[in-house]
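Hello forum,

I keep getting stuck at the same step: I have a sequence, I want structure tokens, and every attempt I make locally crashes halfway through. Rather than fight my setup again tonight, could one of you with a working pipeline run this one for me? It's a single chain of 540 residues.
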Amino acid sequence: MDLELPLGKRTKFYRFFVILLGASSILMILTPVLLSIIDPLYGAIFVIVYLIIWFVKAMAMSARSIQGYNIMQRAARVDWAKRLADLEHPDKSIEQLKHTHKGWRIKDHHRNLERLASAVDVRKPSDMYHAVIIPTYNESLEVLDPTVKLLLSGSYDPKRIILILAYEERGGATTKDPVVEIERLYGKKFHSTHLVMHPSNLPDEVVGKGANITYAGQYLQQFIEQTDISPENVIVTTLDADNHPHKEYFSLVTYEYIVSPMPRNISLQPMSIYINNIWDVPAPMRVLATGNSVWNIVISQRPHALRNFAAHSQGLASLIDTNFWSKRTIVEDGHQFWRSFFRYDGHYAVVPIHVPIYKSVVMSETYKTTLKAQFTQIRRWAYGASDIPYVAERVLTKKRTASFGDSFWKFLLLFEGHVSWASAPYILMLGAFAPLLISSESSRSIAAHQLPNTASVIQTIALIGILVNIILFLRFLPPRPKKYTWFRSFTMITQWVLTPLVGLVYSSAAALNAQIHLMLGKYLTKFDVTDKVVVKHDEA
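Reply #2:
Ran it on my machine without issues. Output:
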């Protein structure tokens, strides 16, 4: 099966589905207005039902966020390097651990040991390697250095880590010099360190991260072929330059890979927590970062809906099967799920990794440019809507190789997710006023007249969800840098009044922007690199 996205002129099939998506989002936003024109009662009923549905969703998300946070805390306390070592000789470990019953998912660990002890072909931790690809484009040494240091300080042996610094030729000396310095400082501390320059203007590529890491992945494949290491024993992790993996991340990923019955058919997805520079960024960015972090915790509790996002891990053998990541999209992370799903005829899953990778929030040189850069980043994420015609073609046509029921359900979840992304904040925040503003008959309708009050009551109760976000945010929050006064701490609480505005601008507006671009055939062919200005703190 051809796994690549189209370039150039799109087919009528492709155009139909991107227009259908954008039209559906716009129609959802206009539905309260259109129904109110017909009859204010209809508009009122629609908004009330919509609010109740999202209220239930909000309560479920709050419950899952608390559950996910507790799981993350418990998983982070496990000595995954020790459990990984138990897999080396599972038969002996069973005997040693038969009286050990404490620890997160210790029963699962016992069952894994029993299964591996009786298996014929078992991978051993001592055979495994990690390849870490860090793509860079104009990232400074101040951004790269902490990330690489954390690879050295984690529980996984750095001598079993192959480090690849994938830099862009188009970045010039600004991009090359920091990776050269990283190699000088730390190169010999890993199994091997490789500087891989992605050439500019290669054919059949859009300007973006996907092309860069695919070029690096193909280099890795060639390197592994020259060694006695099997691709089946190499796990590849992509990290952005500012990503700080938890110290147990690579041990846990290796553990899950080894115990998986079908390691080729999985990818491994950590929780992305945006906290590295949280004290330095403007309030709207803090609200958005917290919401994104909480959502990543929530989605980890829904494996059936989990997709690749940002930093993730996948076996080298699996990546070779899919010819690595797509070079034709600016959202190569989420798209990789669909490439893998269809490559393996639907027999593919994303395994949640319940420890975090800490990331930086968007930050530019000024307040104004930071706001703009944040919008650009969210719009880039929302451009994942370009996956809809790709999936539709492989689910709704003769090209389908996966089970129709499962693949069609996943397609519906994908479609609904993008429609809700673009439309939900508008309806939730403004929909209740539609009957009163649109129809002069609304004053005669009790339901329409009372709708704003009813909506306010529902939304007030739903503030429980925001309260949960605040509590989790405060738990994640690192100590306040000395350069900031108590007033900064105060704004960390009052910032939540911005939630409605942030939702409208950085959720709906950004998603609609991406979808309208697709509708009009204005395809995004360039990856806009997120600004990562580093604020230095004097803690002396």
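The chain has 19 helices and eight strands. If your local run keeps crashing, start a new thread with the error log.
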